[in-house]
Design goal:
By secondary structure, the protein is α+β, with helices and mostly antiparallel strands. Helix content is about 50%, strand content about 15%.
Length: about 200
């Protein structure tokens, strides 16, 4: 009969236990790395969802600011509406301050060069005071959220001075006056008519 195998020595059992421990440790490290990647990915997705939620809310609130600005521009025309005008202006200032705390800033427009990444032109007009390509009037304000465009500004853009005022417009040439050469040619023609033929 074949001899029975010798039982493993304590050193062999210790080596096998160490191998099993290393394998388990490596598995745990992989699980921890996968969880860290998942945590970071989830944090990015949550931040993206938060920003989208902010943008949605702000798009809903900005028309309110537009209406308040229109009201603030007209309610102060009568003396009995002074208190109402003051209240509307205070509400507007409070609303603008709240937008600023949310990271919203208004885009500069009037007197600035037209920037298609920030402005949307709704009309072009001739202007002797503004060079071509300059924003003349802001129709609706534009805003950025943390440096990212939230809504472009609707603006009126100058196309330069009128044609009759343009400095490079050529001056009309004066009509040609009858010169000495013309008179001499007329006399020659008259003389030729008076000569007799042989």
């Amino acid at each position: 009969p074949a001899p029975e195998p010798a039982p493993p020595s304590p050193e062999q059992r210790l080596a096998e236990a160490q191998q099993a421990l290393d394998k388990t440790k490596n598995q745990l490290l992989r699980v921890a790395a996968d969880f860290e990647n998942y945590r970071r990915r989830s944090a990015r997705e949550i931040e993206l969802a938060r920003r989208r939620g902010q943008q949605h809310v702000l798009r809903e609130l900005l028309p309110v600011l537009d209406n308040l600005e229109r009201a603030a521009a007209h309610v102060g025309t009568a003396a009995d509406l002074d208190s109402l005008a003051t209240g509307v202006r205070l509400v507007r200032e409070q609303f603008v301050a709240a937008l600023g705390r949310l990271g919203v800033e208004r885009i500069r427009t009037e007197g600035q060069p037209f920037d298609p990444t920030l402005h949307e032109s709704i009309q072009q007009i001739e202007s002797a005071e503004h060079p071509a390509g300059t924003v003349v009037v802001e129709a609706v304000g534009g805003y950025r959220l943390d440096g990212e465009l939230l809504r472009p500004a609707l603006v009126v853009v100058s196309k330069g001075p009128p044609a009759e005022m343009a400095p490079d417009a050529p001056a009309p040439e004066p009509p040609a006056a009858a010169g000495a050469g013309d008179e001499q040619g007329a006399e020659t023609a008259a003389g030729g008519c008076g000569q007799e033929t042989a």
